[in-house]
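Box S1 | Example of a co-folding query
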Amino acid sequence: MAKKTTKKKQTGKANQKTASITPSPSHPVSQSPPSLPLVAVIMGSQSDWDTMRHADETLTQFGVAHECKVISAHRSPSLASEFASNAERRGFEVIIGAAGGAAHLAGVLAAHTTLPVLGVPMRSEALNGLDSLLATVQMPGGIPVATLAIGKPGAVNAALFAVSILANSRPELREKLHRFREVQEAKIRATVLN
Ligand code: RP5
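Box S1 (continued) | Returned holo structure for 5-O-phosphono-beta-D-ribofuranose
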């Protein structure tokens, strides 16, 4: 399987990121050693990676140390509870949970941690992601999951939301978010229709 290795400045303890796209239920598809990852990007299946790589890329763009990992709420339930239960102690500050179909992953992760959990519904074959959206967003009161859009926009926005949360205590990230918005606005202002 292909592997990618990138070195970037990270908002964490170190500045190296190694990403492998060879996931297994117990091994990360991407991680940021030796810095402490601040964001966990958890997805229910390797088939979610094509979408969730956009979260990975966005976090890398902002230099945020993160870890991407496949954990299934129904195929590896004890791993899901173990990961979420230990996430705060490991130094994570935000968890992104992405899944399709019945899509209970983000809710299950949220059940085991008080860290903010951001849900990304995957586009599913049967119902085009509507099932994933409803299963992720319709959490009963008491255990919140902040749900983003279906698919790639949700993956990108979950990463941006995570950066925004981290930026509350990291001025350098707030500055990067301002620059990111300025670039977006400049592109719109420069758009000329032929
Ligand atoms: C969910 O079921 C995963 O998040 C994925 O979106 C969906 C399909 O999984 P695979 O059958 O592709 O492994 O658990």
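The CA atoms of residues 72 and 78 lie 9 Å apart. The two ends are 44 Å apart (CA to CA).
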